[in-house]
Every structure is written in structure tokens, then in C-alpha cells.
Design brief:
The structure holds 2 protein chains of 2 kinds. Chain A is of the alpha/beta class. Chain A has 20 helices and 19 strands. Chain A folds into 2 domains: 233 residues, Cobalamin-binding domain (Rossmann fold); 313 residues, tm_1862 like domain (pyruvate-formate lyase- activating enzyme). In chain A, 32% of the residues lie in helices and 13% in strands. In chain A, helix 10 links the parallel strand 13 and strand 14. In chain A, helix 5 crosses helix 17. The chains are: A alpha/beta, B alpha+beta. Chains A and B meet through helix 1 and helix 9 of A and helix 1 of B.
């Protein structure tokens, strides 16, 4: 084992925040690999502050290091100042645990949580001393792998990734390790890379892009992505662990030495969500719902707090208030006065919009009632039916009233604009809702403040909106300005919006195909890294690269897809039937809502039946006050008249 | 009860900032389950105060912090280093603790000077030696530095209480210097700049902090003299 520490150390005093590169966190491991052990370099392709808290990476880091035939280190992107030093001094990419250079590892695995990090992935591969294209790699190069939500459309990085793992990684990483161990024993001879990739392609949930060919028609449309090797299945399905209770990870959550985002204990209480919000990729691809047993949750909280010294624990999942027995878990944590657990605050990063949820929030945030965040997502009931986020206005006002009456001073509301069928009336509904929330708040607090934070909608693969043509940058900007102007004189409402230019490129990469590989490469070669950081994002680089390769941003991003169009991810499966998604898309256009299938009959989306697994839910009854349709009268939706919006082009009724 | 703790900062962890170290101690106190007092008010914090900030990247033999424990605690000052050591990261080591009487002067105010082992890079050892002799023989050494966003020219000679050449290192040479913190502080990098503008800082260790009382100086916590003299060995 070698280490780059000696060459790195003299430069650390001259870079920003050097503590990002030293490792040594509480919970960090010091691997001592034996010859033949499979080495995993697990990379979060963003800065340390953003990447360190990532739970997926920490889970795999522990699982690999518990094995006696493998070892893993963590790595994060160096900031531009250190990157310049590394290139000048020829210091390769390294793991932060023992500072082993990337070349000591057999696999470099990336967590792809956001599309705009793709150029960072190429930069990291290059800093590792590995050719950025799979086709150029030699037997001695590490394999380049990826997992995470973006891998449900891995095609834009098909030229660069050797293999991709779809879905939950807990079980798959062990099976992959065993295949790689055999590859190492065989001596990684010339030509053996193809063999090992073939072996990997036979594993459930593993996709090897080089074993597939994409063909395009004369009109430029994708005809099919088909296997070119018998080892590669026609369709690669995702991995799903049936019982979260079998995987109580991370057992030793990392506690950083320096400041990071989400710096608190995180306990995942369930995976999957069946609320069925049509814009939400996470909810669609992580089905079915699998709750962690309450007893295990309590144990992970008390053990975690005692071990880490954190005074805050976040219960993580999608729509956390849906966890069966959430009240009891929260109560037990807040009331726990055993040593090491006093003065603990609990946070629910994903709040449902109703008064019940605020009641829980009140229970857990006894001090520091500053701000509370809700995501109604759309401004009118009609729009919320289209996106199937069935929050009635009275639910929202109930939640806001409850929040201000219990001492919160600010409420933040998240919205999307550029949704399918959205009219200006829907857009302006955002302003109207925000103003009414201020009115509701003023009953309790003269200075009640509401922040409306608006982002441009990006259609994602494996959602009913995957066929929808994203709004253009000028159209999104027009809607943002409409809101800004409308809210100009609204006291108490703060308006925040996201840059539609970055939204456009997120959309490009989200539904792009293999032809984007050279585009991503060109943007990276021209210095376009850290594109998710507004100070680094550069639309002109992307426009230039698209034009240089004869591709149209408009065609990729803004065009509505038709039912018969072949999608770049059609050879990938998240378990969802394509006809279910199409039907749900049609229901969206007809403004028909769909209840949560956890507590109502199955719609046969495919996620459970295809894998012979079921929802793991401790309680068969929906939670109290549950909005989103279940057990509620949705006839009126809060008195907002229902009007039909324009149908998107390319979709006939 | 107010307890003053002396600790060292060595190795990789020297790249953490002063704020990082404060956060690390807050968590260590919770992990060790020490009966710490909290501040009153909207967002209560553990009552701890740190002495002079140590620049990110510098090592130290002599860092200090004061913490307030419940008055009725059975924990004694001597218990703290062994209780804290296992819950602190490698490289941050508590070495001694004493109870201090109220009223007391804060570390920031009480400490008048620090002794530093400074590696100077950029001059041959003999040239550094000459620059050092010249500087110590001069009566005035103005340097320009940025304070609160404004450029100011200050004389740093009064803050250079003592300085001595130690010997060559791989990259340059080592100097030991006692630099004042009151009324105007002089940092190791500024000290080097005053010696010669071409000098930059290599490896830097704070070896002592001093409280001057007339002609006598003492450390906030005195350690039993170590047989090996200066602990200059690098951990990393």
C-alpha cells in the first residue's frame, strides 16, 4: 500500500478548507488490505461538504470493509485550487482514509445523485490516471462503476462507465466483489476486462453499457438499445432489498472534523414512497415502501447519539410523517433522558403538508422555532391534481396556521413551475397561496413571513412525466418574472427562484442518450466542472458542445415524446410497467388523482409484483390527518374551480 | 466550576480550523457525558471558551480552553484529560486541566505572548541567520498588513520579544521566536515577512502561551518539565 499523503501535505496549508482532504473522521476506517482483496474507491462526485453526509456511500463503505475479501476508501472531488496543485505536482486522485492513490483500487464507484455532476465524474476519472472512455482502458486500470438515482438513465455516461448498479446496492456490492476477486486471481490479463464485464452483466441489477448498441434512424430518433453479447439481458432490472431491518447501516455514521451539510445523525426510517406524486422520480423508482422496524429505529437513534455526540437526529425517508408510529418514535427520542441523549432535537427533512405533521414538528422542536418548510409544489388545486400531490388548500392553511400559532416565525413553501398543462393562472396561484399563508400567519404573528421558493420542473425517466417536453428557458423565466412582479407589493412574501439555465442542462442530461457522451466530455475538457455550483455553471459551454456535435438542445429538452417513441432507458427497468406510467400520464392530463396504494388496492404499477415483494408497513391504517387523498373528501379541493389546461403538443386525447 | 484544559494539536488534524476544533470539543463533551453548563437564551450552547485562535495548518503544544461544569459535579479537573482523550480525534490530546477561581481573566485577555517554532522557507540558513540578527538589532520594523479590510502599516518590532536561530531543515531553517499578542499581535507569517519579504512559512508549531506578570511569565497551565526539551517531533 502506498499513500500520496507525503506529497499532498506540503500543499494543504495553501488551499481552502484543507480539513476536507485529511480523513480521520469519527467512524472512519483504516483498511489493511491483504493481497488479492478487492479495493473499492467510493466517490461522491462533488465537494467533501456535500458528499460526506451521503448515507448511500457510507452504507457501502461499511459493508465492503466488513468483508474479509475487500476494502474500501472514500473520496470526494478536490476543489479547483487543490485540483490545480494535484495536476501540477502529478498527485493522483486518492482515498481520504489512508490516502491510497486511485491506482491501488480495483473499482472506482461513483454515487450519481444529480445530473450536473457528470463532468465531475470525468474529471475524477482523469485525475485517477484512468482513460475517460471505457474503450481506451487497459487491464491494469480500475473498473469505473456508478450507482444512485441518476443511473436509471445511464446513457449519457455510457461511453465512460464500465458498469452500473441499479437500485439498492447493499446485496449487489457483495456479489460484484466476488466476481472481481476471481478476476484479480486470474491476473487481470490482456483481454480479461471484457470477460469480467460479461460476468458482471449476468448479475441481477448490473448494467454494462458496452454490451449494448444503440441504433438511430435517419430522422435521428433512437430505434433501439439492444445487447451485442449473449451475457447481456434484453432488459436490466433494479435491485431491491426486501427488508430494511436486515440492513441496519450505517452502524457507525461518520462524524466529520469540519463543517458539512446535514451535519447531524441520520436514521433512515423507510425506503420507497407510494404517494404517487407524478413529478417525483425518487418516489417512483424506490418502490415498494419498506419500513424499518420501530425497535431498530429507536436503537439506531439512541446508539447513534451516544456514539457520535450529535445533538440532532434526522429521520430520513420520503414523506417521513407517513412512517407507522412516527409519533411514538419521536416521543421516545425527545423524552429519552438517558446519558448522551439529553437535549436532543429531531428533524424531519421531508414534512407532509398538514396540521398533524406540524403537531409532530412542535413536539420535536421545543426550542429554536425559526422556520418550517412545506412543499405544496403547485399553486392551484387543478395543478396539484395533475401532479397528483393532493394537498387541499385547507390542509396547507391548517398546517400554516398550526405552525404560526405554535411559535414558528417563518414558513418556506417549495413550488415547481413549468409543469404539464400549467397556465398562467396556475403559476400565479403560487403567489396567491403564499399571500394567503401570510394572512393566516398574521392572525398569530404580526411579522409572519412566508418564503416561496420556485424551481423549474425537469421531467425525469420512470415518471409519468417522462414524455413531457420541458419548458424553455425563456418560458420558465417569463413565469418566474410573472411571479416576481405579482409578488412585488405583497408584504411578508419573499420570492426565491432557481436559475432556469441550469434547469435546462439538468433536463438535457436527465433524458439524454448516448450521443451526449462526447458533449459531456467537451464541456469537461473546456473546464466545465462543478456545474451544480452557480459560480461555475456555464450554459455557453453546453450550447457550444451541443452545436459542435450537431445536436439540438431544443430537441432533447423541450420536445414532447410520443407514446410509441423509444426512450433511451427502455432497456432499463425500475420495476414499473411502461403502460402504467403512460396511463398515469393520461390521468394527469385528465386531472385524475390516484390514491396512495399503501392503504388502498394495488394499481399494478409493477414494482411489487415484478419482484414478488410487498410493502412492509407496520400499520394497515393510514396515518392520522394524512393528506394526499386517503380517506378525504377531495370533491372540492378547497373551492378552487377546475379548469382544463392546454394539452401538450404531441399528446392526443 | 470553571476548568481550564491544556491540549496539543498535531498531525493531520492541524488542518482543521479554530471553529472546527470548537465543534469537535462540543461533541467530545457530549460523548464523554460531562456535566457541562449551557448558555441561556434562544439557542443554548455548551459554555466553553477558547483561547487565541491557532491558524489552520499550525501545530501546537499549548492550546487552551475553559469550560463551565455544573457546580455540584463530582468530576474533578484532573479527571478531564483521561475522560476526553478517548473521545477526541487522533492528534488532539488533552494533557492537563486545572480548576480556576472566579473572578477570572479570559484566556484571550490574559495571554500576552506565544513562543513559536517557525520553519522559514526561501533563504539559505546563513542568510536567514543574518536577517534575524539584523531584525533583532533594529529599533523599528514596519510591515504593511490588511486588518479588517484596510491596509495598515505597523511596526512589528515591539511585538518581537525574542528570536533565535535553531538550525537548518529540509526545506529551509527553523527559528524559535516569542511574539507578543498585546497590544498588537504579530503572527509567525508577519514575523517572517518583517525579517525578509522573500520568506514564507513552512511547518509552524506553537510551543507555549505566556501570561506576563511584571517581570515574571508563566503558562496558563504549567507542565512538569519534560526531559527531552522541546517536543518538536512531527506526528504525521
Amino acid at each position: 500500500m502506498t499513500s500520496v499523503w507525503a506529497s499532498l501535505e506540503p500543499h494543504l496549508a495553501s488551499v481552502q478548507k484543507p480539513a476536507r482532504y485529511i480523513g480521520g473522521e469519527l467512524g472512519a476506517l483504516t483498511p489493511h488490505p491483504k493481497p488479492g482483496d478487492v479495493g473499492w474507491l467510493l466517490v461522491y462526485p462533488d465537494t467533501y461538504e456535500v458528499g460526506l453526509p451521503n448515507q448511500g456511500l457510507q452504507i457501502l463503505y461499511e459493508i465492503v470493509n466488513e468483508r474479509d475479501d475487500a476494502w474500501a476508501e472514500r473520496s470526494y472531488c478536490p476543489w479547483t485550487d487543490l485540483e490545480a496543485v494535484m495536476r501540477r505536482e502529478k498527485i493522483p486522485m486518492f482515498g481520504v482514509d489512508t490516502h491510497a492513490p486511485a491506482s491501488e483500487f480495483d473499482v472506482i464507484g461513483f454515487n450519481l445523485a444529480a445530473e450536473l455532476v457528470y463532468t465531475n465524474v470525468l474529471n475524477t476519472i482523469d485525475l485517477a490516471g484512468v482513460p475517460v472512455r471505457s474503450a481506451d482502458r487497459r487491464p491494469e486500470d480500475p473498473l469505473i462503476a456508478a450507482g444512485g438515482h441518476c443511473t436509471y438513465n445511464p446513457e449519457p455516461l455510457a461511453d465512460h462507465l464500465d458498469f452500473v448498479v441499479l437500485g439498492d446496492g447493499e446485496e449487489a456490492i457483495g456479489e460484484i466483489t466476488e466476481i472481481l476477486a476471481a478476476w484479480k486471481r486470474s491476473g487481470r490479463t490482456e483481454g480479461s476486462r471484457t470477460h469480467v464485464l460479461r460476468d458482471l452483466a449476468r448479475l441481477e441489477g448490473v448494467y454494462v453499457p458496452s454490451l449494448y448498441d444503440a441504433t438511430y434512424g435517419a430522422d435521428g430518433r433512437l430505434i433501439a438499445t439492444t445487447p451485442n453479447d449473449p451475457a447481456a439481458p434484453e432488459v436490466v432490472g433494479k435491485r431491491t432489498i426486501a427488508d430494511l431491518g436486515d440492513w441496519p447501516y450505517p452502524k457507525n455514521q461518520l462524524v466529520p472534523l469540519t463543517e458539512v451539510v446535514h451535519d447531524r445523525l441520520n436514521v433512515e426510517v423507510f425506503r420507497g414512497c407510494t404517494r404517487g406524486c407524478r413529478f417525483c422520480q425518487a418516489g417512483m423508482i424506490t418502490r415498494p415502501v419498506r419500513e424499518r422496524p420501530a425497535e431498530q429505529v429507536r436503537h439506531m437513534i439512541s446508539e447513534g447519539l451516544r456514539r457520535t455526540g450529535y445533538d440532532e437526529v434526522a429521520l430520513t425517508s420520503l414523506s417521513t410523517a407517513d412512517y407507522s408510529g412516527i409519533e411514538q418514535v419521536v416521543e421516545a427520542t425527545v423524552d429519552d433522558s438517558s446519558p448522551g441523549c439529553w437535549d436532543t432535537s429531531v428533524s424531519l427533512p421531508s414534512l407532509r403538508v398538514d396540521a398533524f405533521t406540524v403537531g409532530i414538528a412542535a413536539q420535536i422542536q421545543k426550542a429554536r422555532r425559526t422556520g418550517l418548510t412545506f412543499a405544496p409544489e403547485a399553486g392551484t388545486w387543478r395543478m396539484r391534481q395533475v401532479i397528483n400531490k393532493l394537498i387541499r388548500e385547507e390542509d396547507l392553511y391548517g398546517a400554516v396556521d398550526s405552525a404560526f400559532s405554535q411559535g414558528w416565525k417563518r414558513v418556506k413553501l417549495y413550488f415547481l413551475t413549468g409543469l404539464p398543462t400549467e397556465t398562467d393562472e396556475d403559476t400565479l396561484g403560487i403567489a396567491e397561496l403564499a399571500r394567503k399563508c401570510v394572512e393566516v400567519g398574521k392572525v398569530h404573528n404580526r411579522n409572519a413571513s412566508v418564503t416561496a421558493s420556485v424551481g423549474g420542473f425537469v421531467p425525469k425517466p420512470f415518471t409519468p412525466f417522462q414524455w413531457f417536453g420541458q419548458n424553455t428557458v425563456p418560458e420558465l423565466r417569463r413565469k418566474m418574472h410573472l411571479l416576481r412582479d405579482d409578488l412585488r407589493r405583497s408584504r411578508g412574501v419573499q420570492f426565491k427562484w432557481h436559475d432556469p439555465k441550469a434547469t435546462q442542462i439538468e433536463g438535457l442530461l436527465s433524458r439524454g442518450d448516448r450521443r451526449l457522451g462526447p458533449v459531456i466530455e467537451q464541456v469537461w475538457r473546456e473546464g466545465g466542472v462543478f456545474q451544480e455550483w452557480s459560480e461555475h455553471f456555464d450554459l455557453e459551454l453546453w450550447e457550444g458542445a451541443m452545436a459542435a456535435h450537431g445536436l439540438s438542445l431544443d430537441d432533447y429538452v423541450h420536445r414532447h415524446r410520443t407514446e410509441d417513441e423509444v426512450l433511451p432507458w427502455d432497456h432499463i427497468s425500475a420495476g414499473l410497467h411502461k403502460d402504467f406510467l403512460w396511463q398515469d400520464w393520461r390521468d394527469a392530463l385528465d386531472e385524475v388523482g390516484l390514491e396512495d396504494c399503501r392503504w388502498t388496492p394495488c394499481y399494478d404499477c409493477g414494482a411489487c409484483t415484478g419482484y414478488s415483494i410487498e410493502h412492509v408497513v407496520a400499520s394497515a391504517t393510514p396515518p392520522a390527518g394524512g393528506s394526499q387523498g386517503t380517506g378525504q373528501d377531495l370533491g372540492s379541493g378547497g373551492g378552487v374551480p377546475v379548469e382544463l389546461g392546454r394539452r401538450p403538443a404531441g399528446v392526443t386525447s | 466550576m470553571i476548568v481550564r484544559i491544556r491540549f496539543t494539536k498535531h498531525g493531520k488534524v492541524r488542518f482543521t480550523s479554530h471553529r472546527d476544533v470548537a465543534r469537535i470539543f462540543e461533541r467530545a463533551v457530549r460523548r464523554a457525558r460531562l456535566p457541562i453548563s449551557y448558555t441561556e437564551g434562544f439557542s443554548p450552547r455548551p459554555k466553553m471558551s477558547f483561547g487565541l485562535a491557532l491558524s489552520t495548518g499550525h501545530e501546537s503544544e499549548a492550546e487552551y480552553l475553559d469550560m463551565h461544569l455544573h457546580d455540584d459535579t463530582l468530576v474533578r479537573a484532573d479527571d478531564l484529560p483521561p475522560l476526553l482523550e478517548p473521545v477526541l480525534p487522533i492528534g488532539i490530546t488533552p494533557v492537563a486541566a486545572i480548576e480556576i477561581e472566579r473572578p477570572y481573566t479570559s484566556l484571550q485577555e490574559a495571554v500576552n505572548s506565544c513562543t513559536w517554532l517557525i520553519e522559514a522557507v526561501g533563504l539559505e540558513p546563513h542568510a536567514l541567520r543574518a536577517a534575524l540578527d539584523r531584525a533583532m538589532a533594529s529599533h523599528e520594523l514596519p510591515i504593511t498588513r490588511t486588518r479588517k479590510g484596510k491596509e495598515e502599516t505597523d511596526d512589528v518590532r515591539p511585538a518581537m520579544l525574542a528570536a533565535e536561530f535553531v538550525g537548518p531543515t529540509e526545506r529551509g531553517a527553523q527559528v524559535i521566536a516569542e511574539l507578543a499578542t498585546h497590544p498588537r499581535a504579530c503572527r509567525p507569517a508577519e514575523f517572517l515577512r518583517a525579517l525578509d519579504p522573500s520568506l514564507t512559512e513552512g511547518h509552524v508549531v506553537r510551543t507555549n502561551q505566556w501570561i506576563h506578570d511584571g517581570d515574571v511569565r508563566r503558562e496558563p497551565i504549567e507542565l512538569a518539565p519534560s526531559p527531552s526539551g522541546h517536543a518538536t517531533e512531527r506526528v504525521s
